[in-house]
Amino acid sequence: MHISKSQLEGIMRTYINNSDHVRNKSDKKTPGRFTDEVSLSEDVLEFAKAVKLVSQVDDVRIDKINELKDRIKAGTYNIDGKLVADKIIGEYFADKLI
Fold first, then answer.
1. What is the pTM (predicted TM-score) of this model?
2. Cα–Cα distance measured from residue 63 to residue 53, given in angstroms and rounded to the nearest whole number
3. For the chain, is the Cβ count within 10 Å smaller at the N or the C terminus?
4. What is the dihedral of CA 43, 31, 34, 40, to 10 degrees?
5. What is the pLDDT of residues 67-98, one digit of tens each?
6. In 3-state terms, what secondary structure has residue 38?
7. What percent of the residues of the chain are helix, what percent strand, and what percent coil, each to the nearest 5?
């Protein structure tokens, strides 16, 4: 199963939002009232924190960009159109499945 970056971000956004919501709700409980409660494991909360930290890091790798610029200028950078099309179609359908 392929999970795209946008799907992962949506999943993590849900976990992060729900964990904050549950903590805030638990502070406001009224005695004698029954409420629904969502409980997330420590592993999920730790994973959510890790994803949040990773999402704040720049995805730009200057060394790769400079290498590609040099290859484009030299005329040695060739793109396999079939691989690009396969990747686009794969990500498109992965987003549609969920």
1. 0.33
2. 22
3. N
4. 0
5. 999 999 999 998 899 999 999 998 888 877 66
6. coil
7. 70, 0, 30
